[in-house]
C-alpha cells in the first residue's frame, strides 16, 4: 500500500530528473535532446496529479514536490536551453536575461499555490509555467528554421504572461482519454518529424510506452464505467 501511495511522487521526481538531464544535455550542446526531455517532463507532469487522485494518494507533500519539479523542468531547464542556443552571444547580459524566466515562473507557481482551489478548476490566472516551458522547448527544436528574434519575443512574452492576470481556460475538466491521446499523438508526430534520421533519448523508450499504457488504461476504465 505504501508503495502504491508513493507512485505519484516517484513520477513527479521523474519529471524533476528530466529537467536536470535537460540542463546537462544543453550544456553538452545536444539541444534537441535537451528539448525532448522537457517534453517528456510535460508528459510526466500530466500524469502525476491524476495518478494521485486515482490511487487516493493526494498529499501536501506531493503538491509541494510538484511545484519544485516544475520550476526546474519548466523554468530553469528552458532558460538554460534558450541561453545556450541564442542568448550566449550577449555574454553576461544574455545569461542575466535568461535567468528572468525561472524568476517569473517561480512567482507564478507561488501565486497558484495560494490561489482558490475552486477557481483553479475552471481557469488558470496567467500562463502555466508548464505550457510556457514547453513552448520554449518546441521553439528550440525548430531553432534552425525560426528567426532568433521570434524566440526572443516569445521568451519575453511568456515571462510576462506567466505573471499576468489573464485567465486561461483549464483543461482539468477535459476527459483524460481524449486529452491524453491528443498530447501523445502530437508529441509522437513532432518527434518523428524531428528525429526521423536520428535517435531518441534513451528515456523516450521508457516514458512514451508508459504514458500510452496509462492513457489506454484510463480509456478502458472510462468505457467500463459507462457500461455499468
TrEMBL record:
GO terms for molecular function: CDP-diacylglycerol-serine O-phosphatidyltransferase activity. Keywords: Lipid biosynthesis, Lipid metabolism, Membrane, Phospholipid biosynthesis, Phospholipid metabolism, Transferase, Transmembrane, Transmembrane helix. The keyword Lipid biosynthesis applies. NCBIfam families: pssA. Its EC number is 2.7.8.8. It is found in: Endomembrane system. It catalyses: a CDP-1,2-diacyl-sn-glycerol + L-serine = a 1,2-diacyl-sn-glycero-3-phospho-L-serine + CMP + H(+). The gene is pssA. This is CDP-diacylglycerol--serine O-phosphatidyltransferase.
Amino acid at each position: 500500500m505504501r508503495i502504491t501511495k508513493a507512485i505519484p511522487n516517484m513520477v513527479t521526481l521523474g519529471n524533476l530528473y528530466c529537467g536536470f538531464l535537460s540542463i546537462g544535455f544543453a550544456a553538452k550542446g545536444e539541444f534537441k535532446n535537451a528539448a525532448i526531455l522537457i517534453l517528456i517532463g510535460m508528459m510526466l507532469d500530466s500524469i502525476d496529479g491524476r495518478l494521485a487522485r486515482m490511487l487516493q494518494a493526494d498529499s501536501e507533500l506531493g503538491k509541494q514536490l510538484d511545484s519544485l519539479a516544475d520550476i526546474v523542468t519548466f523554468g530553469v531547464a528552458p532558460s538554460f536551453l534558450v541561453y545556450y542556443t541564442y542568448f550566449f552571444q550577449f555574454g553576461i547580459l544574455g545569461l542575466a536575461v535568461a535567468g528572468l524566466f525561472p524568476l517569473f515562473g517561480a512567482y507564478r507557481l507561488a501565486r497558484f499555490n495560494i490561489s482558490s482551489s475552486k477557481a483553479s478548476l475552471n481557469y488558470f490566472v496567467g500562463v502555466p509555467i508548464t505550457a510556457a516551458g514547453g513552448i520554449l522547448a518546441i521553439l528550440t527544436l525548430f531553432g534552425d528554421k525560426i528567426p532568433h528574434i521570434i524566440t526572443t519575443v516569445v521568451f519575453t512574452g511568456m515571462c510576462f504572461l506567466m505573471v499576468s492576470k489573464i485567465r486561461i481556460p483549464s483543461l482539468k475538466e477535459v476527459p483524460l482519454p481524449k486529452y491524453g491521446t491528443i498530447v501523445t499523438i502530437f508529441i509522437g508526430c513532432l518527434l518523428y518529424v524531428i528525429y526521423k534520421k536520428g535517435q531518441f533519448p534513451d528515456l523516450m523508450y521508457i516514458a512514451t510506452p508508459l504514458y500510452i499504457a496509462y492513457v489506454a488504461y484510463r480509456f478502458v476504465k472510462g468505457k467500463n464505467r459507462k457500461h455499468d
